[in-house]
Each structure stands twice: as C-alpha cells, then as structure tokens.
Amino acid sequence: MSRMGPALKAIGQALPNMADVDYQTLAGAIATSTHGTGKAFGSYASQVVGLQLVTASDEVLDCDAQHHAEVFKAGRVSLGALGLVTRVRL
Questions:
Q1: Buried (b) or exposed (e) across 16-41, using 16+ Cβ within 10 A?
Q2: What residues have CB less than 8 Å from 49, skipping those under 6 apart?
Q3: Of the N and C termini of the chain, which has fewer Cβ atoms inside 10 Å?
Q4: Alpha-carbon span 50 to 58, nearest angstrom
C-alpha cells in the first residue's frame, strides 16, 4: 500500500480513501477489510468489483456480482479461507 499512492498519483488517479496503515499488501488490506476514515467511503473490500480466486481443489474462479456471486461476496473479506486471490479489479 505504501507504493500505491505515489503510483496512482503519477497517472492522475487516487483511491477514494486511504488507511493509516500502509505496510499491508493490497490483497491483505482487502482480505481484512482495512478502511480509512469516514464511513461514506467504505473499506478497500467494498471497492472490489471483481476477483480471481484459486480454490484448494485448483479450480480458478473469476468472480463478480454476476459470476459466482456468493463466492465474490464472501471472497472479498475471506482472510484467505476460500482460496488464493490472484487478481483483483477495483
């Protein structure tokens, strides 16, 4: 996360809200529902619109609100319990 702010700024972008803790990875911040100040902005997990998850049985799931919707809802804040998140779309 410490590198994300400067990288986004370089292309004229920003996240709606940044947490005080910046030593997490983006995947870790999403999986633990890390958030900044202000409830109107939501957590990092609430900003995820899609993710790719590899399950324990080696199944690769591309998840969003329309595809594998229940896995998508749970997978955003799964603490890794559902599998390995390999891609995230914000």
A1: ebbbeeeebebbbbbbbebbbeeeee
A2: 64, 65, 89, 90
A3: C
A4: 19
Percent of the chain with pLDDT over 70: 100
* pTM (two decimals): 0.79
Q: What are phi and psi of 66, to 5 degrees?
A: -105, -25
What pLDDT, on the 0 to 100 scale, is given for residue 1? 79
Residue with tokens 């594998």: 68
Each residue's pLDDT tens digit, 75-89: 899 888 899 999 999
Q: Are 77 and 16 contacting, i.e. CB atoms less than 8 angstroms apart?
A: no
Q: ∠ CA(26), CA(78), CA(64), 5° rounding?
A: 80
CATH (one of 3.10.310.10, 3.30.465.10, 3.60.20.10, 3.30.1340.30) for 4-89: 3.30.465.10
